Amino acid sequence: MSPSVHPTAEVSPTAAIGDGTRIWHWVQIREGARIGRGCNIGKDVYIDVDVVVGDHCKIQNFATLYTGVTLANNVFIGPAGAVVTTNVPPQALVAGVPAKCIGWVCDCGRPLDRNMRCDYDGKSFPALRSKARKSDSRRAK
Ligand SMILES: [Zn+2]
Predict the structure, then answer these.
(1) How far does the centroid of ligand 1 lie from the alpha carbon of residue 20, in Å?
(2) 125 CA to centre of ligand 1 in angstroms
(3) Separation of 102 CA from ligand 1 center, angstroms?
């Protein structure tokens, strides 16, 4: 399935867009950026020169990804307006300005519960449990 790019989006001819990725209204994707397969890039997203986005990432409206940033697979950027200035690990949910990891998401894009399990499809991500615990104990102090 080839990518779908809305006519109002501006994608540099030197950017690479993976199969099945959907790019919505007014998105700008700059020179040399590489977007993986099956991503969803929301309205008014700006993706800077040479940014790398993994497969199956969801990027919500008005997010900005600056040069030097690499997103792993299955990342969720949002809610709207996030400004991403650092690399993002797999399954991370990041939001804010600058964007920080505020949780974790399933491959289906839904948030994981405290046990790193998806309510919707039952998938679980045991490898994320130790990371999540670390951030919990930081908050508790
Ligand atoms: Zn799921």
Answers:
(1) 19
(2) 10
(3) 17
- Can the peptide bond before residue 98 be classed as cis, meaning omega within 30 degrees of 0? yes
Amino acid at 71: L
What pTM does this model have? 0.89
CA of 115 to the centre of ligand 1 (A): 13
Average of per-residue pLDDT values in the chain: 93
User: How many whole angstroms from 58 Cα to the centroid of ligand 1?
Assistant: 14
Residue 60 belongs to some domain of the structure: yes
Q: Which residues contact 54 (CB under 8 A, 6 or more apart)?
A: 36, 70, 71, 72, 73, 74, 75, 90
The CATH number that applies at residue 10 is: 2.160.10.10
Residue 28 lies in a domain: yes
pLDDT per residue as tens digits for the range 79-124: 889 999 999 999 999 999 999 999 999 999 899 999 999 999 999 9
Domain containing 77 equals 4-112
pLDDT greater than 80 at residue 135: no
CA 48 to ligand 1 centroid distance, Å: 29
- Coil, strand or helix at 31: coil
What is the 46 CA–ligand 1 centroid distance (Å)? 27
Please give the tally of structural domains in the chain.
1
User: What pLDDT score does 133 carry?
Assistant: 63
